[in-house]
Amino acid sequence: MRAIFFRIRACLLAAAALSMIGAACARADEFPERPIRFVVGFGAGGPTDILARALANQLSESLGKKVIVENKTGATGNLATQAVATAAPDGYTFLIGASPIAVNQTLFPDFPVKFGRDLVAIAPLGTTDNVLVVQPSLGVHDLNGFIRLVRQRPNAITYATLGVGSFSHLAGIAFDLRAGTKMLPVAYRGGGEAANDLLGGHVQARFASIPAVLDHIRSGQLIALASTGLRRTSWLPDVPTIAESGFPGFDVSLWVGIFGPAGIDETRTQLVEKAIAEAMSSNAMKRALDVQGIAPLVMSRADFNRFVAKEIDRWKTVVETMK
User: Fold this and answer.
1) What is the pLDDT of residues 74-95, one digit of tens each?
2) Domains and CATH numbers, the chain
3) pTM for the complete prediction?
4) C or N terminus of the chain, fewer CB within 10 Å?
């Protein structure tokens, strides 16, 4: 009996030990166990930052852990991109990136981060168009009139940008290439400063996000000549696109998506990807997108990776004209 007692006790102790090991493993597999970080390469208050914060709020609720947004500005978004690409691929650090990711691959050939090798796309979020607005003092009211004026005065018509390689700058470069014009870019540190100088007549034009200039268009302080997407925007249904104004296929749209370091844990990636899809279908996110004039961008992770690769190739020709 004594021997049987000790055997039973040994078996119970072994079972308890296995149970403890199993519980520890289960706790190790729980995700997330700590806050997740969204890194944004642009300043607070812009479309990318606003979208990132709205999504972070939704995910904080659904994942049960805080999602923190960190603005890491500088080098046209490259500082944020590098911070994420070199982070541990454990599912706790993501980049809320936009179109400049594709542009920077050519604009900064020595930049050590390469898409596909160091950084991978996780999920698309949305896309938005810009609108070409001009000062009423120019005396033009349609795109063709603007083009004639710029052709007559090469390097004399200025347009506001947010720096070399910014979306507003590249829209102007792409337009010059298609229209056979030559405008003069003027760089500003922020959108507020650019808007003030445009309204004051210190620069003549700007490829601007629609929400930033909508009130000025409605008040007549600025004239909207054309939007930059393939289809007219619901915000400005009476304003034609550049594509329909004699330049078929012209499409300069800002897209936003989520990226992570290469080699990121697949199980955790799938969990975050699913949570993002659910968040993007929520009424709160739909409202956040609509306020910024952003349309949802829906595609699979594989398709989004292919999309970004194509964007890199598409912008290469444009960027090379700047060198």
Assistant:
1) 888 899 999 999 999 999 999 9
2) 36-128+253-320 (3.40.190.150), 129-245 (3.40.190.10)
3) 0.82
4) N
